[in-house]
Write a structure and sequence with these properties.
- By secondary structure, the protein is an alpha+beta fold.
- The protein is about 40% helix and about 30% strand.
- The protein has 6 helices and 7 strands.
- It has a 5-stranded antiparallel beta sheet, with helices on both faces. Strands 6-7 form a two-stranded antiparallel sheet.
- The longest helix is centred in the last third of the chain and has 23 residues, at about 120-140.
- The relative contact order is 0.11.
Length: about 160
């Protein structure tokens, strides 16, 4: 199998969204995973629906502006996490890694990969909320509460214990 065909197979069958866009907006190419991530059946449908308005994909258009600015400044962006919009208006979180590509004629485009990290972002948020609840319960307990390590070092102590 020749290289171009191998790369095409990887592009078409990857579970990660792979794409090429114009800096000013507009999808040049996207793989099926990218289209599905945004709620479209095919890459062509995705590309046609977006047109030259890539900013419509972002919950906060300032995220795209930051991304483009950083890409122009350094030539690449790794793992930029931001919230996006699906076709149906639902929100999801992605991690986007991109590089600025030149075609030899002075034309620049963005090559990128995108991964849906919604579950990870939601898990981190739930963990922070649970930790805040835990700290609130411990800090507001009327009795002294502490947690120590196995060697006797005090790791956590609440205000009531500190007052004693």
């Amino acid at each position: 199998m020749d290289r171009e065909r191998i790369y095409r197979e990887i592009f078409e069958h990857s579970e990660i969204g792979v794409y090429q866009t114009l800096i000013e907006g507009g999808v040049i190419e996207a793989n099926p995973a990218m289209a599905r991530m945004f709620g479209y059946d095919t890459p062509i449908e995705f590309s046609q629906a977006i047109g030259r308005r890539n900013d419509r994909l972002y919950v906060r258009p300032a995220d795209r502006e930051w991304h483009i600015g950083e890409l122009k400044r350094s030539g690449r962006v790794s793992n930029h996490v931001c919230e996006m919009l699906r076709r149906d208006g639902s929100r999801f979180w992605i991690s986007d890694s991109t590089t600025l590509a030149q075609d030899g004629k002075g034309n620049a485009s963005i090559l990128g990969t995108m991964v849906d990290v919604t579950d990870l972002v939601q898990s981190q948020r739930a963990f922070r909320e649970a930790e805040a609840r835990y700290r609130s319960i411990i800090d507001n307990a009327l009795e002294g509460v502490y947690i120590s390590s196995l060697d006797g070092r005090m790791m956590v102590a609440n205000r009531a214990l500190a007052e004693v």
